[in-house]
Every structure is written in structure tokens, then in C-alpha cells.
Design a protein that fits this description.
Oligomer: single chain
Largest sheet: 6 strands, antiparallel
Order of helices and strands: EHEHEEEHHEEEE
Radius of gyration: 16 Å
Number of helices: 4
Helix content: 25-40%
Strand content: 25-35%
Number of strands: 9
Amino acid sequence: MKLLRTIRLDPSDTFVFDRAAVPGEWAVSGAFMFGDTDAALLQGKPRTAFRGGLLGVQSLGWSTLAQVVEASEADRDAAIAMLAQQFVAQFGAPDLATARAAAEEEVAFAASLCDHPHDTLIAVHRSVEDGAIREAFRSLHPRGERKPMRAFAFLEVEGEEEPAEQVDLMKLGEGERK
């Protein structure tokens, strides 16, 4: 199985987001963070997070990129448990069972983005169209031989034009995806 982990190729995330994700934590899309937000009114760092941030599960910080990595069932379960705890503690989920169901859905969606070779980087671009959040995901593949990753060692980009998900803002609180 593969999941997403936050990655920081340079210090820019610490400047562009209010809270940067810790490198190496499990990552999900994070679109749910904007369910009650009028994206048109966002400015500065919150706008940057809306437009291009992937959410670190433990820190609830943002990362510009996430890396496709091999993961075990235990890793998946840990990511779900951490996100479920965040839903209860930070977002007012009514109970852990409800939170766990929502966390399972978020982690499953993140896993669905991992149909790429190990070390592929994933980026997101969010926008609002007809009252719904639209997310377009891009994959960045290392060029040439596998070497330590540097920010400019990635050339190949896939999926820049097709939105991979649409979230209805009115139903987001109920955990539904379009």
C-alpha cells in the first residue's frame, strides 16, 4: 500500500503558510479545512493554504508537496487514528466513531492519489467553481537516475489540467464528496 507523506525540499513552506507541516508526517488533501470558509475572502497565508496546501495529519500544518511512500496497514491505521483524534479535538466531531469514519474516507482518498512510483511528488491546486471546491492534483516524477531529491530535479508533470475531486461546500460537513 502507498500513502502520502509531507516533504519539504526547501524552507518556503515555513514562510508561505501560517503553520507548515512537519516533514515526514502523513498527509491528506485537507479540503475539509475550508468547508465553512468563503474562499473568495481569503488573503495572504490562508489563501496560499487554500490554493496549494496538502494537510499534515499530526500538525494540521500545510505542505506544498507530499511524497508517495510505501506504507503498512499499521501506518494506515495510525494515520486514521491521528486524524480521527484531530476531528474530535479540533473540529468538534460528535464522537470518535463518527470521526474515524470521516478519517478513513480522507486517508482512502489520499491513498487513491498514490497510483505512482515510490518518491513521486504530489501537488494540489484548489479553486471554487459553482460553490464547490475543486482540486486538481499533479504528479511530479524525478528525472533521470534516482538521486537525493532537490527542488529542481523534477521535470515530468502529470495531471495538471483535470480536477481530481469536487467537494460540495454545502455537504462538506456531512463528509460527502462529489
